[in-house]
Design a protein that fits this description.
This protein starts with a helix and ends in a 9-residue tail after the last helix. By secondary structure, the chain is of the alpha+beta class. It has two domains: about 30 residues, no CATH class; about 80 residues, no CATH class. The radius of gyration is 19 Å and the shape is extended. It is built from four helices and four strands. The longest helix is centred in the middle third of the chain and has 18 residues. Strands 1-2 form a two-stranded antiparallel sheet. The protein has a two-stranded antiparallel ribbon with strand order 3-4. A hairpin with a 2-residue loop joins strand 3 and strand 4.
Length: about 120
């Protein structure tokens, strides 16, 4: 990104960078994002494993076709920004991923694609 934005000067010409990437990188509508989470631990004294899986596909969002990676990346970023704006996250400093409460994140309309 440093090379593109600073060294090549695209920071001041964002529209040219978008055009360059749109014209040189193929759009891949058949992509999938696979989410697989497994945890093990004690529940009521019994060693237990829980698994969460989701497959997210490309889809239309606000009238525009987006790839699965676009949907999941943008959705998570927007949901966290929403939480920050609502005061549910620290208002300054570095915010670690583990500081974002999953229940708070999952009520955001931005992550409806994960459900």
């Amino acid at each position: 990104m440093q090379f593109l934005l600073v060294d090549l000067g695209f920071k001041a010409h964002r529209e040219k960078l978008v055009e360059l990437l749109d014209n040189t990188l193929p759009f891949t509508p058949q992509d999938k994002v696979l989410v697989f989470i497994t945890v093990s631990g004690q529940i009521k004294g019994r060693f237990t494993q829980k698994v969460f899986t989701r497959t997210i596909y490309n889809q239309e969002v606000a009238g525009k076709e987006l790839t699965a990676i676009q949907v999941t990346t943008a959705g998570a970023v927007c949901a966290v920004m929403d939480l920050h704006a609502a005061g549910k996250l620290p208002q300054k400093g570095f915010i670690r991923q583990e500081q974002v409460a999953l229940p708070d994140l999952m009520v955001s309309d931005f992550v409806r694609f994960y459900k």
